[in-house]
Amino acid sequence: MSNRLAATPNDLRAFWMPFTANRQFKASPRMFVAAEGMHFTTADNRQVLDGTAGLWCVNAGHCRPKITEAIREQAGELDYAPAFQMGHPKAFELANRLVDLSPEGMDHVFYTNSGSESVDTALKIALAYHRARGDGARFRLIGRERGYHGVNFGGISVGGIVANRKLFGTLLTGVDHLPHTHLPGKNAFTRGEPEHGADLADELERICTLHDPSTVAAVIVEPVAGSTGVLIPPKGYLQRLRAICDKHGILLIFDEVITGYGRLGAPFAAQFFDVKPDIITTAKGLTNGVIPMGAVFVKNEIHDTFMDGPEHLIEFFHGYTYSGNPMACATALGTLDTYRDDGLFERAADMAPYWEDALHSLKDAKHVIDIRNLGLVGAIELEPIAGAPTKRAFSAFVRAYEKGCLIRTTGDIIALSPPLIVEKTHIDELMDCIRTVLDEVE
Ligand SMILES: Cc1ncc(COP(=O)(O)O)c(C=O)c1O
Asked: 94 near 293, Cβ under 8 Å?
């Protein structure tokens, strides 16, 4: 046994694990000790196929050489530079590389350390922008039911997942929510974008009428809702949201923490759907998940509005000790090089039809009540066990892991998002595993 395997800790009490059934885990731990390409290695030296790109973040696959090398070099050269009132070249180089990928006219980037921080940063930029324009009565933020925007107070306020909100008091005030777009009665087993539901965007008009549009600062949605179980936007829905926001002078924020960096086969969902938001939040795939980092893209007009007043004054009172940290920037540059040199966004687009066919081949598998897909994202929704929601999907997750596949479940939905280097044989293996597991679980 190698040292790395022997080093597995045998006392698991101290670490309070995030979004985890701690007691179940500690009774029956699932430990990864290494990873390469499409696979993890477990502590008992098994290979597990990564069907989820870690947590929707390892888009280039694991332990990619350009990323590893970039980190190695950076660590020996410049470990840290203060983020406030000081700079280092890679932060600027990265920002320029990022805006080359972003939709036209979004030429400015604000760095964060996570998706949650990107979301809270975007909400603050939106509020402060209106204030800077002399339109400070715009204080309302509109999210969506079943939206996931991370776990900070701004994100859970505009988010729409009940379990993430109910324990945390009053949250932000002045927030309202659009209805979610999940219409299984009409859209079940749709391949790609569903036909029904674009009119749900019109609910924004109703919300605007209720509060008066002049009080609404921003609308935030995930173009494809990921963490809530992969809800693909109905055809025309995002375009309608954009039109209503334009009509009322409301900013549209796309939370692209999952869809950013190639997941749909384009750099961002904004380009995939051809709908340009005013602000885009990202994280995860920015550094291939390797070092925590997020980036918020803003339209030029928003950025330029802040660049006013005496030049010695700080324009925006916001930022993090680790905004644009040299290690994170080096990692992101290595990641962007890998995406470019390996043509991974194009690869995702090329592989998407095979992925779609493979997913939908599970239509007749046991317990399956819906299948959804777009780009290299997919969801298989299971009939819940009466009186025990989430139990069937959780059992499927544990069994799939034991059989050598990492899947992710949310509620009774299996959500899949393989690294963009996935091969057809991996997709076949994943679907075979899921079919077998669904046959076995109660
Ligand atoms: C759309 C979206 N926004 C925000 C987040 C939060 O990101 P993080 O966990 O890096 O804070 C996530 C994480 O899954 C996400 O999917």
From this structure: no
Residue-level pLDDT at 5: 53
CA 364 / ligand 1 centre spacing (Å): 32
Q: Of the candidates 318, 341, 364, which is a domain's last residue?
A: 341
Residue 122 shares a structural domain with residue 21 = no
Counting atoms of ligand 1 from 1, which one is nearest the CA of 114?
10
One domain for residues 407 and 382: yes
The structure's pTM equals 0.97
The pair of structure tokens assigned to 175 is 């927030």
Which of 19, 227, 322, 417 has most ligand 1 atoms within 8 Å of its beta carbon, as the pocket-test mutant?
227
What residues in the chain have per-residue pLDDT under 70?
1-10
Residue 8 confidence (pLDDT): 59
Q: Are residues 302 and 354 in the same domain?
A: no
Protein residue with least CA distance to atom 12, ligand 1: 150
We report the CATH number of the domain holding residue 406 as 3.90.1150.10
Ligand 1 pocket by Cβ (under 6 Å): 114-116, 119, 148-150, 222, 226-227, 255, 257-258, 283
CA–centroid distance, 267 to ligand 1, in Å, is: 17
Q: What is the 3-state secondary structure (H, E, C) of 52-113?
A: CHHHHCCCCCECCHHHHHHHHHHHCCCCCCCCCCCCCHHHHHHHHHHHHHCCCCCCEEEEEC
What is the per-residue pLDDT for 292? 98
Q: Are 20 and 157 members of one domain?
A: no
- Strand, coil or helix: what is 124? helix
| 155 Cα: distance to centroid of ligand 1 (angstroms) | 9
**Confidence at residue 1, expressed as pLDDT on a 0 to 100 scale:** 43
What is the pLDDT at residue 3? Answer: 53
